[in-house]
Amino acid sequence: MILPPFELHQPQSIAEAVALLGRFGPAADVLAGGSDLLPNYKQRLNSKPHVVSLEHIPELRLLTPERLGAMARLADIARDPHIRGELPVIAETAAQVASPLIIEQATIGGNLLLDTRCFYFNQSLFWRESKGYCLKAEGDVCLVVPQKEVCYATNSSDLAPVLMTLGAELHLASSAGERVVPLRDFYRHDGVARHVRRADEILTLIDIPPAARRLAAAYMKLRIRDAIDFPAMGAAAALRLDGRGRIAELHIAVGAVDTTPRLFAELTAGFTGQELAATTIGEIADQVMARVRPYNNVPLSPAYRKRMVGVYVRRLLTALANQAPA
Questions:
Q1: Which pTM was predicted?
Q2: In this predicted model, what pLDDT tens digit does every residue of 263-316 receive, in sequence order?
Q3: Which residue, of 70, 190, 308, 315, has the greatest Cβ tally within 10 A?
Q4: Which CATH number fits domain 58-210: 3.30.465.10, 3.60.15.10, 3.30.360.10, 3.30.70.1450?
Q5: Largest CA distance in the chain
Q6: Would you tell me how many other CB atoms lie within 10 Å of the CB of residue 216?
């Protein structure tokens, strides 16, 4: 399928990139790896007249366990020996995002800024026209939850739940300067608005706090085809036990069940100090499952995805209980 016409801009620095975005505003898209944006453009999904590529900005490729540049390729993250040694959950998650060809192209910034997905959106123009379009593209009504205020397309980022449990922060740059936003506060409950990044900003860096290295963390992904599919549900957990085997720190996040990845901070804080026995694990899993409400907008039914939230959280905590540092 042929791409629609647009003007491609290839800045050589962050300053040049944000100047272009400040100039074009909402009329421009940012191109990282392109594994999500370009297929959407081919389907004529919300294409813009200007595309600003970040390919030629070397400082965005920074790759250390403490700080990840937004243009770091997922394949490079998966292979990096320092990340594999200090934060293996990030490397392991990057490796299972998609097929080997796609992760060689896709970036960590692109995965965090992944467009939301929905049965009624990710279709051809001909298909969308037959349904009368939707709130996310050309229409004015959400076809998942019929109303005109909020788009209920699903956030399907694999790395967002993981980085939430690790306490990551995002650096956003514009011509006005830089601001830092905790990842837990980045996303918005709207499949159109999606996040708090402004049209004149680019994501430059992801900071991983030192405390993340004290956590045992893991991610599990529910999907139909293991080699390539977006998650129909993804669960991440990070755990630290005290010297008596009790919960000193616990973070759980679930993705691909709502318009945003969900971090269950208040729930998990209530289990601090408890022994991580099988009964506790079951109670945590049941409470997380009770709090999610998947929508009928991606493959696999909402009821099945909800049930699997409990199954995956239980499996994650059982596995982490045997390896969590004290």
A1: 0.96
A2: 999 999 999 999 999 999 999 999 999 999 999 999 899 999 999 999 999 999
A3: 70
A4: 3.30.465.10
A5: 62
A6: 18
